[in-house]
Amino acid sequence: MGAVLALPLLAVPSIGTILTFGASCCGAATCSAVCSACGKCNNSIATRIAYAFLLLLNSLLSWILLTPWAVKKLQAVLLDYVTINCAGHDCFGFAAVHRVNFALGLFHCILAGLLIGVKSSKDTRAALQNGYWGPKIVVWLGLIVGSFLIPNRFFEVWGNYVAFGGAVFFLLLGLVLLVDLAHTFAEFCIDKIEETDSGLWRGILIGSTLSMFLGSIAMTIVMYIFFAGSGCAMNQSAITINLVLLLTIAVLSIHPTIQASNPRAGLAQAATVSIYCTYLTLSAVAMEPDDKNCNPLIRATGTRKASIFIGAVVTFITCAYTTTRAATYGLALGSGKGSGAIALEEDDHAGGHGLVDTQPESRREMRAEALRRAVESGALPASALDESDDDDDDDDPKTGKYKNDDEKARVQYNYTIYHIIFMLATAWIATLLTQNIGGHIGQVGSRLCEHQTKPPIMYTASFAFFEALWDAGVTHVFVNLGSDHPSILEAIVKGQRETPHKFPKILTCPNEMVAMSLADGFARLTNRPQAVIVHVDVGTQGLGAAVHNASCGRAPVLIFAGLSPVTCEGELRGSRTEYIHWIQDVPDQRQIVGQYCRYSGEIKRGVNVKQLVNRALSFATSEPRGPVYLLGSREAMEEEIEPYSINQAHWTSVTLGGLTPPQVSLIADALIEAERPLLITGYSGRNHSVPAALVDLATAVPGLRVLDTGGSDMCFPSNHPAWLGLRYGVHEAIPKADVILVLDCDVPWIPTQCAPSPTAKIYHLDVDALKQQMPVFYIPALARFRVDAFTAISQLATYTTSTYSTRVQSAPYTERATALQESHKSTITHLQSLAIPEPDNTFQTSYLASRLRALLPEDTIFAIEAVTNAPSIHDQLRPHLPGTWINCGGGGLGWSGGGALGIKLAADEVVGGKGKGKFVCQIVGDGTFLFSVPGSVYWIAERYKIPILTIVLNNQGWNAPRKSLLLVHPEGLGSKVDNEELNISFAPTPDYAGIARAASGGKCWAGRAADVEGLEMKLKEAIEVVKGGRTAVLDAQLGGTVGKYQGE
Fold it and tell me: What ranges does the record give for the region Disordered, renumbered to this chain (predicted)?
């Protein structure tokens, strides 16, 4: 069990272990080096040293190629013909290491095939084994170069399956030979005891057996205490299974049936296998990567280094014995009688198995003695004694002929099996070097440089969270990250590297309100939900007025916030690690924004994170749309899960229908019968198909007029005669109307200022007819229907046209239509008369807006947050294209900064690329400009190259509070003082444009205008700057320069 678990983890890829691999594959390489130094090295040993040295060079090259630097240098040498890239992401060391080891493995495979059946050095093919080193080196290097011409995909399959299988076989071969080692050791001790009746050998056998069993028990106890805690089911299972198997082996080793078959079998063999397999199990759990809960060594650097060193030593011993014994077995299993070879008598202790148990000593003398006996018995002629073992007096490395040739009569090892073992060794080395075991290469032995292997790429709840967002259509995530987001950060890096084209774009936002406004603006233009990530309770509170705006404006936005960790003592990954984790732990974080959200929920486990994300988005995109809030603790978001997907077709929003036929006729008949019908709307233009449908209805019902009392979206075009413009609940048409149709509107009128006639028939069509977020709301409607605006208006227009087409041609209706046209012309003429400069050559809002209308592209999208100035701006801009007027949906000032950036991002994406979308102009009051956190807004604009034009309406402060005061206390004390005494004046004003320029690092265009000529010049300059890709901010100083910033 331990062997199976430790296959990829038995050793660490260090210089020390690489050296052991090279030494082990020649079996007795260390002793051979000593022999070579004495000048008495036999031919077979020299050959094995050479092949071991070749493996060592190959392993060092593999280790160097683990670094991206080496791969890039290699690609440069190959003139960039080869690009190391796997499945869309860089895999540097993985592919390079497997290429190099594949080349050496192929080299040994070719030699294994060519050397099948070689019995002695007299076979001409033996020269291929023992000589021709120059050509063989050239072939090896050629195979390496050729391997880099093979497609990467081949080595993805080779490395993950074929090489891994070879590594497994190599390790299993070592385990089989380990059993033989245990048997040999026990028999050797027993022989010594029987021969000498020595208490020393009896003590060695009993002591070593007992020590190995005690060591196995001690390691098992350590593993249970430190590596098998709560939640470590895999470790618990591995340790327990290993313990059960070892106990079973111990019992079987002394079972009567086993003893009858092999009396020399016993506990010594079982103890050897026990301690080795227990060590392998310990290695497996101790090298478990990136898991602080089931592996305490992750945090213990010293202990971890010690385990690496011990692992290298054990690996050296295991590899050396494996290859030595495998070569000997290969000779025995591959030999046979004949071919001129003289078979030596078997030792009595060989047990009849025909295997050579030890390396032969004095082979030359033994061969000479065998020849003499053969001549004496008549098996060979006497001339055989005249043949010298040293037929060649001189060495010939080219052909492999040496004067110390010890293989003239018989090879010392099976050449073919020897090369097959080397081929398996290359697979093992490649597998070890490319395993993500989290250690440092070069921590044991000599080190050329230090390289950190890549940590395992985990599939966590956080990564599944991002996958769910992308699959649901969320393309942008606006983030303000904190200590609750380690797994979020890991998932972002993983996604941006592995699937950059299928991962949401991440935009850093230094302020939470700006982040929320960005997502709001994007969603307002596209009706597609976007996401915001903030930091625990404080980040949630930082959303502030922006979450109110998204709720009132019905913008689909998904908010995710972390929770302070729920564990304190390291019970789970993500447990508390910082002081602030206690401070930011609150009783009910969801309640901070819960009343503004359509849904709020907690991610408690990673296994259903995608379902929770899609449930939240289903609420966000179902009418009435709005923000949703998810939160999750660090532990929950750190949870590793199996990758999975869900059927996105099963997660759609709830759609609204239209009116029933009786409802259609009820409303249509009332509109046709009315003398002064009026339609009041507020946000129906969110659906860009609605304005055209309203035009059809206004055309079908002569005399119908349309009033916008929300200014949230462009709901009805200004170039239609039925257009009455934008007014906030106060218009002379309201009390005069006899039939009023309210369509998607939060405040159709203000009863204390402008109430409808008591006899007016009122019908209410709305996606949110009950206004569920408003504790107090009601209008005296005869009927109210929760419907989709486009569907219902289209039904009414179709019904009216088909039913009353003849009737509306009569005089009363044509007269109404004519009157509307005349009234519309008169209105436009009046509005144009307001757009003139002041006598002192300064300007006010109307003139400024008229110049914007004249200079900006016709399809410019206006992000408006002008508060009291909004109606006059609307009058002059007179938007008529769907989606070109977007006002803050709520009352939280500061929306338009981030909102305009989000609108521009969306405009570009809709048409397929940065800079390709419509021109975006933000018009904002001076006080509101400061609320928008311009330091964050213009940093983001520059960081992500989002060009917008900002017009700051500088009127020295807040005028809205004065208006509110006068509505309640028209003759009060406040009505008789100036704004400074009311504490609503900003005089002297800040340098609004300078704030933006500073935030952008001096990149934003900044200008001021206080007179007509300056305005014309600065506007044209600013517009060109934005068209060129830079943001521009113009401080429009209404009424002149008094009390306003004029520079140094």
Answer: 382-404
